[in-house]
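Aggregate trends can hide what the representation actually does to any particular protein. In the encoding step, the backbone of a single protein was reduced to a row of integers, each denoting a local shape. The record that follows shows the chain in one-letter code together with its fold in token form.

***
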Amino acid sequence: ALSSAIGTTTSFLPQVVAPLIDRGWIASERGPGGGYSLTVASLDISLFDVLEATEGPTVNGRCVLRDQPCPGDESCPAHVVWTDAREVLIDGLRKIPAVNAGERQ
């Protein structure tokens, strides 16, 4: 049911949830009666936390236009706009509880 709900295959599901298990947000039970369940710790995480756990750091120090390390002192034309937009997006994602992220607002 979980693989169907998130649009993946049952064989790929362990790779999807592995970072969440590593952080203690999901418990994994093997065997015929096993499966995945949320832990108490998962109630305190945001959608942003899940995205960073599965996709890596949002702020990676790379230039959005040049795909190379951002030099800082010679920033690209999009630097200020991109930085401001990223902060707004991150703030918004931090306000969405991960447990309720799939529900319609």
About this structure: The CA atoms of residues 79 and 85 lie 10 Å apart.
